[in-house]
Design a protein that fits this description.
6-stranded parallel β-sheet, 12 helices, elongated, alpha/beta, binds NADP nicotinamide-adenine-dinucleotide phosphate, 7-stranded mixed β-sheet
Length: about 375
């Protein structure tokens, strides 16, 4: 990617006035030039849009666990350096290619980009943009795709959760966990047990709507769940932690229970004892939300449309842990030289745990 110093520090409006759409103008982007190093901000040159593409003026970009992994070279996809992280964003359509029919200039949209979201401008295929309905703020909308898309897919499409069923959510105060608690409680009307590693996290999950909590930092998850639900156990478990937490969640399932493997935040991948599946006719299933984009686009797209619709109806309320400006990303530090009040893009457990659903604020609408 051609990073240019020219234009650095000039007001964005000035840069925009200099030329027509796409050509001759520049925008600021966060760049990962070296893995495990702080991100830099560079002025990069705009390119023309292809017929099927849309140029979006990005206002907010969500920061996810996967962004951290990708900047450390630990994600399953490894983009070529230098690259701009950021998988989800919200913004306003600036320009459309000649074949674009789904959105028009001025529309407010959310987008799911492989990477590239942490920039003032993003060029993206029209297929991976969804219109933001009236009443949904751009800031909240930016956090919907990954966490709520995953939560909806896990609960509705994979586990087929029914109203009144009991749902156990691990890492319930993480970005994904909170979204699962929100959707399970407030959309699907399930009974939610939120499991997390501290009392503060349990409290946050309760505020989102969970009926009861388990602090697994204090002891065994299965035993605590048994005390809450007795021999009825839980119908659905959504796990983002892996390791022993996953195994205890599996052992907490009821007859014909379903467990969805969403992530391994704890760093350990457990093996499934197949006899546990047999004994109670239990199903263990995996979920990789982003993969649905290629494998089953209608299902993928529905998770986004549903998230926007639930948000517009006031059923769900995304939790925003912190909002910081693009300029502040330069202050992000590696583990070795941590900046206490800002997230560590190189993957410290601390900021992951304290600030689910971070958002990079690129600019305010209308400025
Ligand atoms: N499969 C998919 O499509 C998909 C989609 C989204 C996310 N994910 C995965 O789901 C996991 C959680 O993502 P998230 O966005 O919810 O992350 P997050 O907001 O950073 O929350 C992660 C949570 O995991 C728990 N945790 C346990 N051990 C940890 C460790 N060693 N380091 C960090 N956190 C640890 C923490 O809760 P406690 O202290 O309460 O245990 C923490 O709050 C990640 O592995 C992510 O890659 C997968």
């Amino acid at each position: 990617m051609a990073a240019v110093a020219r234009g650095r520090g000039l007001p964005r409006a000035w840069l925009c006035r200099r030329a027509g759409p796409g050509c001759g103008r520049h925008y600021r982007a966060a760049l990962c030039a070296q893995l495990k190093q702080p991100l830099a901000i560079e002025e990069v040159a705009s390119r023309p849009v292809q017929p099927h593409e849309v140029r979006v003026d990005v206002h907010f970009c969500g920061v996810n666990f996967a962004d951290i992994l990708v900047c450390r070279g630990q994600y399953q996809e490894k983009p070529q350096l230098p690259f701009t992280p950021g998988m989800e964003f919200s913004g306003t359509v600036l320009e459309t290619g000649t074949d674009v029919s789904t959105v028009k200039e001025g529309d407010q949209v959310i987008g799911v980009s492989g990477f590239n979201g942490m920039a003032e401008e993003c060029i993206i295929d029209q297929k991976t943009l969804w219109q933001i309905p009236e009443g949904v703020p751009l800031r909240e909308a930016a956090t919907l795709p990954v966490s709520y898309g995953t939560a909806i897919l896990a609960l509705e499409h994979r586990a087929c959760t029914r109203p009144g069923e009991t749902v156990l959510v691990t890492a319930a105060a993480g970005a994904t966990g909170l979204a699962v608690v929100d959707v399970a409680t407030n959309v699907l009307r399930a009974q939610v047990i939120a499991a997390a590693g501290s009392d503060d996290k349990c409290k946050l999950a309760m505020q989102k709507g969970a009926q009861s909590t388990v602090n697994y930092g204090r002891g065994g998850l299965k035993e605590a769940v048994r005390k809450l639900v007795g021999s009825g156990w839980v119908n659905v478990a959504i796990d983002t932690v892996g390791g022993d937490v996953f195994l205890e969640a599996l052992r907490s399932l009821a007859w014909e229970g379903r467990i969805v493997v969403v992530g391994f935040a704890g760093g350990t991948i457990a093996s499934v004892p197949a006899n546990l599946l047999l004994l109670k006719n239990v199903s263990a299933m995996g979920l990789y939300w982003g993969r649905y984009k290629e494998q089953n686009f209608p299902v993928f797209s529905r998770t986004l449309s549903s998230a926007l619709q639930y948000c517009q109806q006031g059923l769900i309320q995304p939790h925003i842990g912190a909002v910081f400006k693009l300029e502040e990303i330069q202050k992000l530090r590696s583990r070795e030289g941590r900046c206490s009040d800002l997230p560590d893009i190189n993957g410290s457990r601390e900021w992951q745990s304290q600030d689910p659903s971070l958002v990079v604020w690129l600019r305010s609408p209308g400025t």
